[in-house]
Amino acid sequence: MRIAIVNDLNMAVEALRRVVRSRPDYTIAWVAHDGAEAVEKCAADGPDMILMDLIMPVMNGVEATRRIMRDSPCPILVVTATVDGNVSLVFEAMGHGALDAVNTPVLGTDGQMTGAQALLRKIEIIGHLISRPAVMSPAVSDVTVLPPEKGRLPLVVLGASTGGPAALADILSRLPAVVNAGIVIIQHIGKEFSHELALWLGTNCRLQVKVATPGCRPEAGVVWLAGTNEHLVLTKHGTLEYRVEPAGCFYRPSVDVFFKSVAAHWSPQGVAILLTGMGRDGGEGLLALRRCGWRTIAQDKATSVVYGMPRAAAELGAAERILPLGEIADALMRGLNNGTNP
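Above: the chain's sequence. Below: its structure in C-alpha cell form.
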C-alpha cells in the first residue's frame, strides 16, 4: 500500500515514516508539508491512503480533505496531535470524507514510539475496506418478536461511519428538547475521540449526549454514544454493556452487533437508522430489527458522504424508507409518535 504523509512538523513526519515503514507491504508515496501541497501532489500522484494532519500553514487539513475528496478522491485518515481545542475540525474533516481519526504517534528522545499500534490498526482497517470488495451479507435468520415489556420506553438506534458525525449532528439538531424515547448511537470512531464527539454533538442539539458506561440504561431525552473500541450491546436486562466478542469483527464498535442485540432483547419496537459510511456494517442488524417490527430508515445516496452502509441495507431490503438526511429527523419523530410507518 502506498501511503502519503501530510504534516508540517518534521518530528511528526519522521514518526509517521517509521510507523509506515515498519510494515513491509507499506511504502511512502510522498510527503507534503501543508494542505495546498497535498492537494497538488494527490492530483498528480494518487496514493492508496493519506495520513492528514489538521493544523498546518497555507491550507489546513479540513480544506485539503474537502478539495481532495472533490477533485481526486482518496482514502484519508486524520492523524493529529491537536485534538484538544480543535475537536470540531476532526469532525468537519470527517464530514468532508475523511474515514477516521487517530492521534499522531510520538517519537520519544529515547527513540521509543508511542501510539504506533493504534495508527497501524486504523491503516489496516481502512486498507481492508478499500482493497476487498464487499460481499453480500447472508440473509438474517428468523428472529423472535418479543412481546412488549411493561415500563420500557421506545428506543431509537443509529449507526454511522464515514461522514457520520455531521449527519448525526444534523439529525439531533432537529429533534425537540423532549423525546419520549431512549437514543443510542454507534459511530465508527476511535475511543480517544468518543468523549469529544459526545461533547460536540451536545453543542448541536437540545438533548443530553453522553458516552455509554457499563450498566447504564436507555432513558428519555438522553443520547448514549458507544465510547470504546469494544462492541456496545444491549443485554436481556435492558442495560448497555461492552463486549470483546465477536473478536474477529473488523468494525469496532460494530453497528451490526449492537442492532442484533437490540433485536434480541428490547421491546417495544422503535426506530432504527443507518447513515453514511464505508463498508456494509449495520445492514444485517437493520434487517433483523425490521423483521421484529421496527421502523427502519437508511440515508439516501445523494446525501451520504459514502454510500456503503446504507446501500447494503437497501440491497438487503432492510430499510422501509430511504431518505435524504434532512428528512430523517421528522420521519424518526413520526415513527415514535404513531408507531406505524415513519
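The chain has two domains: 2-131, 155-338.
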